[in-house]
Description:
Strand order of the largest sheet: 1-11-10-7-6-2-3
Radius of gyration: 21 Å
Distance between the termini: 25 Å
Order of helices and strands: HHHEHEHEHEEEHEEEEEHHHEEHHE
Number of strands: 14
Number of helices: 12
Structural class: alpha/beta
Bound molecules: pyridoxal-5'-phosphate
Amino acid sequence: MNKKIINFVQDVYQTKDFIPLHAPIFIGKEKKYVNDALDSTYVSSIGKYVDDFEKRIKEYTNTSKAVVTVNGTAALHTALYMAGVKSGDLVITQSLTFVATCNVIHHMNAEPVFVDVSSLSLGLCPNALESYLEEYALINSDGACEHKITHQIIRAVVPMHTFGHPVDLDEISIICSKWNIMLIEDAAESLGSFYKDNHTGTVGSYGALSFNGNKIITTGGGGAILTKTFKDYKRVKHILTTAKIAHPYNYVHDEVGFNYRMPNINASLGLAQIEDFSEVLSKKKRLALMYKNFFKDTRIDFFEPINTNKQNNWLNTIIFSSKYERNLFMRVLIENDIFPRPPWKLMSKINFFKECFSDDLSNSRYLEERILNIPSSTIK
Ligand SMILES: *Cc1c(COP(=O)(O)O)cnc(C)c1O
């Protein structure tokens, strides 16, 4: 079995050398656009590539507006800021996520609350969310959702579309409206994945994308915040531009802002990447099908998402029946220069978040030990 998978992966990538988990590919006009940005001297936060890339992201995701940022973490931080998260608030998210989701909650001086993921989506479980709220929350006299024990406001829910697989957004939206909680989507991993007819990141009040080097398209470092109204868009642009009042020469700022805009040079790379995105998606789909067929005849489960008809297949995921088998398999691949990746250590277990509230996290704990992501770079 081990020999078979090694041969299979080496055949897929046509190499016996190092095979990474996910490498970026540049098959289009990247060099042309980056050079053009250099020649224009517009390498910083203003320029036509920023405008063009924002427009393409907006059109692709069919959101009302997109604002591109220096990275996905900055986009998520802005989303929480826009949602009105305040010092001392609680923000519900999943324990099975990348640390950035929780870091931004901490940056707002709020605290994460960890609710279990669904083993069908690998993302926030609506039933777990509902049960947690039933047990620990109440709607206070101001109409806000309050924690029964600490009286902190539960301001937002931030589901994350793990490895590109959409969470059950219908159910989660219903629960958020019922409990008067803001819904913000961490769609950092899910550009190209749709929940029903909606692109991930466009159902909640705000969504954040990432274009880091390991994501499905890259701008080197980069991200985007997706907003639903023109008013929100104007406000996001303003606070991300250090809250400078537009004026030909006067520098006046009307509040404390951020410097989170994506530079034009990064956007030039992004524009070339998004132009080739449909080709990348179809190649990734082909790879996922190849893996699926391969694992059909084995004792290893190839994870298939439920909540989607259109999935980005960013990282292919297999699930073992035990941690022991997973680790054994992982070691064999690494010895052969093939680099898979286990999931992140649960956020509820890492030092600086381990005191936070959580439910029993049974699926998260189960999956943490058994999941493995296998090489998923776009094939030729
Ligand atoms: C990549 C990622 C981010 C943030 O991305 P950066 O662009 O690296 O700041 C946030 N959340 C999740 C789940 C991610 O995978």
